[in-house]
């Protein structure tokens, strides 16, 4: 896998993990700005796709610094976390924030990028520890293995 990507398998369903991402992000002071449910969009046009939801979230106190340094970094902000099912395994996937530093003129913002990296690592760890596999499906993926 690309070294700029971080993946972590978690127990439970995609819906359970998405709910926990939203809860954990909000509890840590971040704002969840949106969900993109790719599987629902596929179903809407008569196609099948395993559950895949992108959660966008961030903290303007942190992300704004990067956008001030290089407005183009807004292309990749707020942060994104993909929660998807692959053969029944729920996985969290995100791109390391250092890739922003490589893609945009963010010299001098290493501390901000490290703050983002730490926040993402804490978020996925919290989700991995909090998702209850016995809770059952409660949304996308209900009834799927």
TrEMBL record:
Domain DUF302, chain residue ranges per copy? 36-97
Q: Cite the EC number.
A: 3.2.1.23
Keyword check for Hydrolase, yes or no: yes
The UniProt entry, under Pfam families, shows:
DUF302
Q: Which UniProt keywords apply?
A: Glycosidase, Hydrolase
Q: Which sequence ranges form a coiled-coil region, renumbered to this chain?
A: none
Q: Which Gene3D superfamilies match?
A: TT1751-like domain
* Molecular function (Gene Ontology), one example: beta-galactosidase activity
**InterPro entries (UniProt xref):** DUF302, TT1751-like_sf
Name this polypeptide is given? Beta-galactosidase
């Amino acid at each position: 896998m690309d070294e700029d990507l971080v993946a972590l398998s978690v127990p439970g369903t995609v819906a359970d993990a998405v709910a926990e991402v939203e809860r954990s992000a909000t509890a840590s002071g971040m704002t969840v700005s949106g969900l993109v449910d790719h599987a629902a969009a596929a179903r809407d046009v008569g196609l099948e796709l395993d559950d895949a939801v992108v959660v966008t979230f961030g903290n303007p106190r942190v992300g704004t610094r990067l956008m001030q340094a290089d407005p183009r970094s807004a292309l990749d902000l707020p942060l994104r976390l993909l929660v998807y099912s692959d053969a029944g395994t729920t996985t969290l996937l995100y791109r390391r924030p250092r890739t922003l530093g490589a893609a945009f003129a963010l010299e001098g913002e290493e501390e901000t990028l490290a703050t983002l990296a730490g926040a993402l690592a804490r978020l996925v760890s919290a989700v991995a520890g909090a998702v209850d596999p016995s809770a059952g499906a409660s949304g996308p993926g209900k009834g799927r293995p």
